Amino acid sequence: MHRLSDDIRQWADALGFDELGIARPALAEDEAHLLRWLQDGRHGTMRWMGRHGVKRARPERLVPGTVRVISVRMDYRPPDLEADDQILADGRRAFIARYALGRDYHKLMRKRLQRLAERIEATVGAFGYRVFVDSGPVLEKALGRNAGLGWIGKNTLLLNRHAGSYFFLGELFTDLPLPEDRPVTEDLCGSCRACIDICPTRAITGPRQLDARRCISYLTIEHEGSIPEDLRPAIGNRVFGCDDCQAVCPWNRYAQPTDEADFHPRHGLETASLVALFDWDETTFLRRTEGSAIRRLGHARWLRNLAVALGNGPADPQAITALKARLGHPHPLVREHVVWALERLQPGGAAQSR
């Protein structure tokens, strides 16, 4: 098993994974934390979070026979990107979370984990396994911590002392009794609270305490309905996700840029203006988000997010014209946020324009 473990690490490296660790599926403390979080309703409208009960924290219940979890990580931040704060300071531009600028990572990582499993199978024969890449009820950060890939920081993300937090995670549940890696038990955040202090909506209510209902990533990606009006101004020009708590983290000085071409920006999303993106019709949206995590929003929620961002920006004639053109949009979600944005840019003007 020790020799096999060494081989698995070499195969994972050849497949483009940046690090691999192995852990026993023991998550009792994490299960208690999850249940408290769900009971407090901090998951918002993500009802699927509670749908699987304790399976999320008990891999052996999710995949019977599981005795080890192989966790992998893959860096995703593209090289040579403009600093986040420069984009956020320009109310005419769109900020998109760095992970979503390129192709969707799910298929890429899932295929490579499957290839890793097949390489193991070619060596040891048939064995029990299942691949996960954000595709099931899995506590991936806790498993990554137990596998030695990092510690869970105050922003609730997995932090790695050599790579920061700009990386994806994937798992291979297996019945092979591989030797375990040493978990990261130190809290290397120390007294730092930069992520807590910078959160625009105060979604990080304390160390490792996240209220998803206030989180910009939740509001712009997971939430399907109207964005609460009191939170809209704090969203600024963030139209898909938010990286503030990562960008400010001192450990991300060590984040490594990815050389994975699929994670590099596509369709100029890293430099796009809000008006240009708001002008996309549904056909254009579907074409330019093909293979992208952004497509899961659908066109209506994409316009919802952009309308909020335009309403938070300068009252440019181009922005006002673009918003007015959407006042008759067939989806009430879009119309509501367009009206709000116009009222911000020209008080009283939205009602007169309808």
TrEMBL record:
Binding positions ([4Fe-4S] cluster 2): 199, 215, 242, 245
Catalytic machinery residues: 134
Keyword Transit peptide: no
This protein's pathway: tRNA modification; tRNA-queuosine biosynthesis
Positions bound to cob(II)alamin: 56, 134, 155, 158, 169, 217, 242-243
EC number: 1.17.99.6
Stated role: Catalyzes the conversion of epoxyqueuosine (oQ) to queuosine (Q), which is a hypermodified base found in the wobble positions of tRNA(Asp), tRNA(Asn), tRNA(His) and tRNA(Tyr).
Record localization: Cytoplasm
Subunit relationships: Monomer.
Residues binding [4Fe-4S] cluster 1: 189, 192, 195, 249
Lineage of origin: Bacteria, Pseudomonadati, Pseudomonadota, Gammaproteobacteria, Chromatiales
Main location: cytoplasm
Organism encoding this protein: Spiribacter pallidus
Residues of the signal peptide: none
Family, as annotated: Belongs to the QueG family.
Cofactor stoichiometry and binding remark: Binds 2 [4Fe-4S] clusters per monomer.
Cofactor: cob(II)alamin; [4Fe-4S] cluster
GO molecular function: epoxyqueuosine reductase activity
Matches recorded under SUPFAM superfamilies: 4Fe-4S ferredoxins
InterPro entries assigned to the protein according to its UniProt record, in alphabetical order: 4Fe4S_Fe-S-bd, 4Fe4S_Fe_S_CS, ARM-like, QueG, QueG_DUF1730
EC class name: oxidoreductase
Keywords assigned by UniProt, alphabetized: 4Fe-4S, Cobalamin, Cobalt, Cytoplasm, Iron, Iron-sulfur, Metal-binding, Oxidoreductase, Queuosine biosynthesis, tRNA processing
Protein name: Epoxyqueuosine reductase
